[in-house]
Specification:
Layout: E1 7-17, H1 21-32, E2 38-41, E3 57-59, H2 61-64, E4 68-69, H3 70-83, E5 88-89, E6 93-97, E7 102-107, E8 110-121, E9 125-127, H4 130-133, E10 143-145, H5 146-156, E11 163-167, H6 171-182, E12 186-191, H7 201-208, E13 215-216, E14 219-225, E15 232-237, E16 250-253, E17 256-259, E18 263-265, H8 268-272, E19 297-299, H9 310-328, E20 338-342, E21 346-350, E22 353-354, E23 360-366, E24 370-379, E25 382-392, E26 398-402, H10 404-407, E27 413-418
Parallel strand pairs: 1-2, 1-8, 2-5, 8-19, 10-17, 11-12, 11-17, 12-13, 20-27
Antiparallel strand pairs: 3-4, 6-7, 7-8, 9-18, 14-15, 15-16, 20-22, 21-23, 23-26, 24-25, 24-27
Helix pairs in contact: 1-3, 1-9, 5-6, 6-7
The structure holds flavin-adenine dinucleotide.
Length: about 425
């Protein structure tokens, strides 16, 4: 039983939860915007979040115009954090956020309660597992999520198997198909339930096509076989409703199944502070300042919505850091907001609320891949703006800027794909 006297109370202007790319960029931005009294809470014993295990390149193209590896990208921000003398706590888990913005943290030094003026949520996301997609069969060794396999191979020098099937063509799954091939394993198939890949087109080309790894679209794994270790999986086609059909089922002999079947924003903590969550993204509803439904609580990075590219995480987090600073200094302009709605063909759009007072960059994802697609913004029936794209893909985040002059007089805002 913990007594009140066991808790170490501290007052602090800004608490940032998570020391991944989002937390690092938010902290640096807050400090540069005048916040001296801030702290990053990170549960791992390192900074950089998922990046240290992403040893492939492709990070930083947008921000640094260089293709860096994950560890190199993270190090640039860690160096700046140290230069700015921003404090952080490692091996420290934020357990609860109360309604009055107290953040309880378990750390090797004891149990802390940070009484914060503002909080930035930057907890990233976690992978979906076998249990969440309910694959029938036995429970042998050899079933990994793609991120866990990446961690074992890249950071612990442990090979996960020799004959591999990958379920899900998300970016992590495709990157791991290439990685395992380079390490000498045979990737028999990447199996995808959708009729298109679920990751970036560049990863489809560079990780699967370039290495001649078979991609089975509109298929899924319907059974795992094996006693101690996986020895085969059953692959079945699916119909338009994504239900598996018995016709043309086949077994693939393998010793390992990797799952790359989606990422879930880590918002259990956000719920303790009453932050309202969007069922589509799994992240918070936010306004253009990235402020959640709870005043003074901001969100950015993969905990807000799963990003395709880390550079966009950094840019978003910089905005969250600046917004939190304005809030702390009492300079945030509060004005009437309107709800932004995702219409037909749009999976989601952020921010969810805008104030019509500034230019805004909207981030959105479409539901289906397409070519020569126009996206339209409407106030009721009135078309405000259209933007045409040569190609769109659900895995790719689309950014569209709305000028203050375009939204100044609107009463509603809805975005949809035009036929
Ligand atoms: C396998 C893989 C490959 C990728 N490849 C690319 C690529 O080639 N190019 C690219 O641009 N992007 C790539 N990405 C995406 C990029 O890595 C992510 O977009 C980025 O890491 C998200 O940053 P984040 O800070 O939001 O989350 P994370 O990096 O997940 O960081 C979140 C941090 O919060 C901490 N945390 C969570 N909960 C708590 C708590 N309660 N208390 C304390 N700390 C907590 C976690 O420990 C973690 O360190 C890849 C991602 C993966 C997984």
């Amino acid at each position: 039983m913990i007594k009140l006297s066991d808790i170490l109370f501290r007052e602090v202007a800004l608490v940032i939860i998570g020391g991944g790319p989002a937390g690092l960029a938010a902290a640096i931005s807050a400090k540069k915007n005048g916040i001296r009294d801030l702290i990053i809470i990170e549960r791992n014993d390192w900074l950089g979040g998922i990046l240290p295990q992403c040893i492939h390149d492709g990070f930083g193209i947008e921000i640094f115009d260089e293709a860096l590896t994950g560890p190199e990208y993270a190090q640039r921000f860690i160096d700046e954090l140290n230069l700015l003398e921003i404090p952080y706590m490692l091996n420290s888990m934020a357990l609860e956020i109360t309604l009055d913005k107290n953040v309880y943290v378990a750390s090797p030094e004891g149990l802390f309660c940070f009484k914060a003026k503002a909080i930035i949520l930057a907890m990233g996301c976690r992978e979906r597992t076998r249990g969440q997609i309910c694959i029938p069969g036995t429970r042998p060794a050899g079933v990994y999520t793609a991120g866990v396999a990446q961690n074992l191979i890249n950071l612990k020098n442990m090979m996960v198997g020799k004959n591999i099937v990958i379920l899900g063509s998300g970016d992590v799954g495709m990157i791991m198909a290439r990685r395992l091939t380079l390490e000498g394993a045979k990737v028999h198939a990447v199996v995808e339930i959708l009729p298109h890949t679920n990751g970036l087109p560049r990863n489809h080309q560079q990780c699967l096509i370039d290495y001649e790894i078979p991609l089975l679209l509109s298929h899924t794994v319907t059974e795992i076989q094996g006693r101690n270790r996986v020895n085969s999986v059953t692959i079945s086609p699916v119909n338009k409703e994504l239900e598996s059909i018995k016709l043309n089922q086949r077994k693939i002999t393998c010793d390992t199944l990797l799952l790359s079947v989606g990422l879930i924003p880590e918002n259990e903590l956000s719920k303790t502070s009453n932050v309202k969550l969007n069922p589509v993204t799994g992240g918070a509803f936010v306004d253009e300042n990235l402020e959640t439904s709870v005043s003074g609580v901001f969100a950015c990075g993969n905990v807000l919505h799963v990003h395709d590219v880390v550079d966009f995480v950094t840019l978003e987090a910089e905005r969250a850091g600046k917004s939190a600073s304005l809030y702390i200094f009492g300079k945030q302009t509060k004005s009437k907001r309107i709800r932004v709605e995702a219409g037909s063909g749009i999976r989601y759009i952020l921010p969810n609320f805008i104030s019509k007072k500034t230019d805004i960059e909207m981030s959105l994802r479409v539901k289906h891949p397409g070519e020569q697609v126009s996206i339209g913004f409407f106030d009721g029936k009135k078309l405000l703006k259209t933007k045409k794209f040569r190609k769109v893909h659900p895995a790719q985040m689309i950014k569209i800027k709305l000028k203050e002059s375009e939204t100044r007089a609107i009463k509603t805002l809805k975005v949809r794909v035009l036929q």
